[in-house]
Write a structure and sequence with these properties.
Length: 186
């Protein structure tokens, strides 16, 4: 069992122990910072640095009571979702300050991580992902892990304990679904 796995299991047993949290943080910090840096390269309006995003997400991360995490990938999945929530919450705050504004162009390239992201586009994507998750939770999770977590399709297959071909189908389906949903949002 790797040190990260041992630390993760211990942290889940006692999430309020600062020593356990600190040990886990030291073991996964580099990976979390890499995920944050990749995500923020596409964030045109974010005042966060990768370090700040990791720290903000770390403050919000709690091990799920219902589903134990036995591997590093499970933790990265939780961290990716938490970083998504931090960025979406920040975008909502900025949008509330603006009280509206003009129309925002939304394209699938946002979901595929190929474009700069402004607050309106990020919120449109978040709403579309929430709608996708209602009927197709696995496909929505693939998008979150790929776009917000920076995981490859192979890593997602490993985290989800699914075949690579299944994850590829989910990605293609989610991409098409999001394209339609984001066009409607325009």
């Amino acid at each position: 069992m790797s040190p990260a796995t041992r630390s993760l299991l211990a942290w889940q047993d006692d999430p309020d122990d600062p020593a356990l949290a600190s040990t886990l943080a030291q073991l996964v910090y580099g990976e979390l910072r890499g995920i944050a840096a990749a995500r923020l390269r596409r964030e045109s309006a974010s005042p966060f640095t990768p370090t700040e995003l990791v720290h903000e997400a770390w403050l919000r991360i709690r091990p799920p009571a219902s589903q134990p995490m036995a591997r590093r990938e499970h933790f990265l999945k939780l961290a990716s979702a938490t970083m998504r929530n931090v960025l979406v919450d920040q975008a909502r705050e900025r949008q509330a300050d603006k009280r509206g504004g003009g129309m925002h162009q939304v394209t699938l390239s946002l979901a595929q991580g190929q474009a700069d992201v402004d607050d309106g586009r990020l919120l449109d994507l978040d709403r579309a992902l929430d709608r996708l998750a209602v009927d197709h939770p696995r496909a929505a999770e693939v998008v979150v892990l790929r776009c917000f977590g920076g995981l490859t399709l192979e890593e997602i297959a490993e985290v989800r304990a699914a075949s690579l071909s299944t994850i590829k189908r989910d990605w293609v389906f989610a991409s098409a679904w999001l394209t339609d949903a984001l066009r409607e949002a325009e």
